[in-house]
Design goal:
This protein has one helix spanning 44-59; strands at 2-5, 11-14, 19-24, 28-32, 37-40. By secondary structure, the protein is of the alpha+beta class. The radius of gyration is 11 Å and the shape is globular. The protein starts with a strand and ends with a helix.
Length: 60
Amino acid sequence: MIDITRMDGRMLMINAELIETVEETPDTVITLTTGRKIIVKESRQEVKNLVKSYRKDVFA
């Protein structure tokens, strides 16, 4: 799970394994494999780094 911030400032944990795409349009939109879309404050690169860190922890 990774912690992200919604546009209204609320924190949310999402399962990094369910992330299908991350795009900046200009807001960062995370699309999950379920079809749900979440707009977050973090940049695309920040989300990528969070997922990489999560995977390092899981597979270490």
